[in-house]
Amino acid sequence: MVYKEGDGLLTEKFDNLVKQLRVLPGVGQKTAQRMALHLLNGKRPQGSALAQALDIAMHGIIECQQCHSFSDDEVCPICLDPRRDDSVLCVVETAADVMAIEQSAGYRGRYFVLGGHLSPLDGINADDLNIDQLVNRVKATPVEELILATSTTVEGQTTAHFISEAVRRHVGKVTRIAQGIPMGGELEYLDSMTLSQALQNRS
Amino acid sequence: MVYKEGDGLLTEKFDNLVKQLRVLPGVGQKTAQRMALHLLNGKRPQGSALAQALDIAMHGIIECQQCHSFSDDEVCPICLDPRRDDSVLCVVETAADVMAIEQSAGYRGRYFVLGGHLSPLDGINADDLNIDQLVNRVKATPVEELILATSTTVEGQTTAHFISEAVRRHVGKVTRIAQGIPMGGELEYLDSMTLSQALQNRS
């Protein structure tokens, strides 16, 4: 007889901790057990600190009223930052994308988070994204350039095209994040779509 | 400029969550970010449940007064279980070992957790382990067989030998968990120590 899901491990509190840890992405039964034991064996203060941070984050992180990214307050630090360039607005799918672009540190304009991409097959239409809010945003506060930084999947491309049509009359110019060969990419291992795009967009 | 540890990511609450998640074993900066985003994007109730389970476990899981494994109450469910065989006592290093043996489901006796192994170089001597308690335990409640299931490292072997000497006068017999070739093991890839042990202990 081997371990079956649902069997008790050690104690009720331990079993529940293991079960709840499995909500984390990439964490299965064995990893969850290892995490629980690691915390219980001499990392209890850190475990309590994690519990508190989780609780605060789950209840306290809200959506920024301006850019719809994650925020502790009504308006996020990036929207409040006076050193940011108001004339450029970068449209991304999720708050994770904001974080990725911020970490590359090559951008000093503002952001706008759509909350996903158009995907009619999954039932995600224009009404489910913050597209109306985006149009209102560029109507109320004019921007010179709107950068479409949605992903380069079919859905991301469709979303970019849709938004481009919706805002074209209200902004100076609409640009699309560059597609091409990633840094360190070897030509022979790249897919032909990327390669043909990279050749077309040569500069 | 790329991301440096200590930089802010999105918001204070988010950054703190990412920082605290890194206490989990095998979780680095990127994985912690992914976990935090995963919970914030539509898994908030589960995140709150995890926070609660963590908090309860960190404060509520104590050491069983009898076997020194993890327990929710003064005495753990295994020590309380009347169907367990009182005549056999299995001595292990940690509560994780109890869990591993329980999951193999081949053992129905009692357990005793030492709390580690002897390691003079790391300053862990007999006084730092529950060895006195073990001797008192077998003096108070006689057992027919004491199984030494410490690990098969040098420290584990030394610990087993030390305990064997300490309890020999008080128990019927002292046995050592079998050493040999693991299930599915291929001879050519095994280390020579295991192989020579397996040959010596042939049955």
From TrEMBL, chains A, B:
SMART domains: TOPRIM (SM00493). GO terms for biological process: DNA recombination; DNA repair. A zinc finger (C4-type) spans 64-79. Transmembrane segments: none annotated. Residues 87-182 form the Toprim domain. Keywords: DNA damage, DNA recombination, DNA repair, Metal-binding, Zinc, Zinc-finger. PROSITE patterns: RECR, TOPRIM. One of its GO terms (molecular function) is DNA binding. InterPro entries: DNA_Rcmb_RecR, Rcmb_RecR, Rcmb_RecR_Znf, TOPRIM_dom, TOPRIM_RecR. May play a role in DNA repair. It seems to be involved in an RecBC-independent recombinational process of DNA repair. It may act with RecF and RecO. Belongs to the RecR family. PANTHER family: RECOMBINATION PROTEIN RECR. This is Recombination protein RecR. It comes from Psychrobacter pasteurii. The gene is recR.
